[in-house]
Amino acid sequence: MKVSSLFSGGKDSVYAVYWAINQAWEVETLVNIIPKRDDSWMFHYPNAWISKLQAEAMGIPIISVETEGDKETEIGDMEKALRLAKENYKVGGVISGALASEYQRIRIETVCHKLGLKSFTPLWHKNQIQLLNDIVSAGFDVIITSVSAFGLDESWLGRKLDKNAVSQLERLQEKYGIWPAGEGGEFETLVLDGPIFKKRIVIDESINEWRGNSGVMLVKMAHLAEKD
């Protein structure tokens, strides 16, 4: 099956691409919606520009569309981008990394139905700790780029998602009731390498911005490098 992938560059969307490739599906293009504001209801804001590097690293074309990031316009902008994917790449379906957000899933399905595309959410309601462990075990190099929850301080910015980090997130789930995979906005991630990457991403320059109880790691410069 030929599909397009709604793509943020975070762990869930990258892992959804990995899942599709393992199903022997043809991921013809990535679709990245870039919000102009940091409180978008649907799409990742921090470091969205790196999705183009990730697409190049995976060898998959990417369609990038900007959106104002509010409820009234971002769904329409997603529809425009997916229409381009259907017309230019002849895809029959769309995969996404939706995990637990009914708001996201319903809107993606609505747009897909309107365009005559099938919607696939391979991570839907997957156990979140199991998902994190699967991502780590598969060999993805994931870092945390924003935090906004009890127990997640500035030391988490830029931290690698590994077995130890997963264990700590599980403890924070027990203590504070957070979504351990960050589905509630507790944190966002960036994937630098993995089994479907032909090259790896190297961060050359970044800064941490911390405000009150939340913060973000902003990547200023990055480049692709050959893998060992």
Structural features:
single chain, 228 residues, alpha/beta, Rossmann fold, putative n-type atp pyrophosphatase, domain 2, five-stranded parallel beta sheet, 6 helices, 9 strands, 34% helix, globular
Shape: globular
Architecture (CATH level 2) name of the largest domain: 3-Layer(aba) Sandwich
Computed CA radius of gyration, to the nearest angstrom: 17 Å
CATH class of the largest domain: Alpha Beta
SSE pattern, N- to C-terminal: EHEHEHEHEHEHEEE
Quote the CATH topology of the largest domain. Answer: Rossmann fold
Helix and strand content put the structural class at: alpha/beta
According to CATH, the homologous superfamily of the largest domain is HUPs
Task: Describe the fold and architecture.
The protein has helices at 11-22, 51-58, 71-89, 102-115, 128-138, 163-176, and strands at residues 2-6, 26-35, 62-67, 93-95, 118-120, 141-147, 187-193, 199-211, 214-226. The protein has 228 residues and is of the alpha/beta class. The protein has 2 domains: 2-120, HUPs (Rossmann fold, 3-Layer(aba) Sandwich); 140-226, putative n-type atp pyrophosphatase, domain 2. Helix 3 (71-89) packs across helix 4 (102-115) and helix 5 packs antiparallel against helix 6. The chain is globular. The protein starts with a strand and ends with a strand.
Q: Outline of this structure?
A:
By secondary structure, the protein is of the alpha/beta class.
How are the elements arranged and paired?
Blueprint (H helix, E strand, L loop, with lengths): L1 E5 L4 H12 L3 E10 L15 H8 L3 E6 L3 H19 L3 E3 L6 H14 L2 E3 L7 H11 L2 E7 L15 H14 L10 E7 L5 E13 L2 E13 L2
Parallel strand pairs: 1-2, 1-4, 2-3, 4-5
Antiparallel strand pairs: 6-7, 6-9, 8-9
Helix pairs in contact: 3-4, 5-6
